[in-house]
Amino acid sequence: MSQRIDSYGPSGSPAGWSRVGDEVRRVVRLADPLLPYQARELLSALAQLALFCNGEGLPGKAEVWLSREVIERFIAVGCPNVRPSTRGNYRTRLLRLSEIVLGGQCRTGKPAKLSASVPNSPYSPTELADLWGWGSGQPTEELRWGCKTLMALGLGAGLDSPEVIPLRVHDIRRVSGGGPVVVATRGTRKREILCRRPWEGVLASAADRLDTAGTAQYLFRPNCYSRGTNTVTNFLARTQPGPNVPRLVMGRLRSTWLAELFEERLPITVIVAAAGVDTLHGLSRILPFLRAVPAEEAARLLRGSR
């Protein structure tokens, strides 16, 4: 059985597997004698979770992947093309794996307190400028437009990878007369989002260059017809790295978008609706990255207007 675990690799040779494969196999070797599942069932579920976390920019550690929050996020948005019954099986196996990895009282069958996942920090203005220059300098038009499209969707509309992948060209529309650009998402968090003003032109150009009457082209990687959960990760693995340029991570783009909304003091109800969430828990993780309000201004705001 150990040999079978050591030789395991997901189909399609996804780009992120080289970064997470050893940790996946290590965890399954640890858990295999302790759980009533076949090793391949555990490998399949954990591999999908690990690749999703890699695409989100999370650390390559099972202690992070197997927190309850990360597992639930993966089930909700990380496997959109998987049947509900399969998602249920994934959740069950991953929660049992979390008991083994986090140890302690979990092995007695009692629920354990799980550690929180590491939040994605927003990009700084300098990092964003470096990323834009890096994306604009890619060697092919496909790579250049792919990077620009990802930045416009993440920084302009707060989309994450599972929402980017199924997006079609006609899901982007511009109100006539130079009005706002509207993004209509698909899947479980279906909604319409107005793109942030600085990214309207980029996103509209990305859609216009692909707009062909009578077709339903994908907006991101329009010539890639096999749309797996690693579509974004595989694309980014083909880009040319730049010196001192941070990795492009959709989770960090979304965090940057959220931080800007909070800093501009949009009503919380507007932010919740645009982010496509049902609770404030996920949004609260952005709070450590927000600027403190000066005492005088805080006092004025708390007192309120007449």
Determine the strand fraction and express it as a percent band.
under 5%
The major sheet is characterized as: 3 strands, antiparallel
**Topology as a string of helices (H) and strands (E):** HHHHHHHHHEEEHHHHHH
Distance between the termini: 73 Å
Query: Over the alpha carbons, how many angstroms does the gyration radius reach?
Result: 21 Å
Number of helices: 15
Q: Provide the helix percentage.
A: 40-55%
Mean of pLDDT:
85
- The best one-word shape is globular
Please give the number of β-strands.
3
Class by alpha and beta content: mainly alpha
Question: Strands of the biggest beta sheet: in what spatial order?
Answer: 1-2-3
Stretches where pLDDT is under 50 for at least 5 consecutive residues are: 104-117
Structure overview:
It is a single chain. The chain has 306 residues and is mostly helical. The chain is built from 15 helices and three strands. The chain has helices at 2-6, 17-31, 39-55, 62-65, 68-78, 84-102, 125-136, 141-157, 161-164, 200-208, 231-237, 250-263, 268-275, 281-284, 295-303, and strands at residues 172-174, 181-184, 192-194. Strands 1-2-3 form a three-stranded antiparallel β-sheet, with helices on one face. Helix 2 packs antiparallel against helix 3 and helix 8 (141-157) runs parallel beside helix 12. The longest helix has 19 residues, at 84-102. It is globular. The chain starts with a helix and ends with a helix.
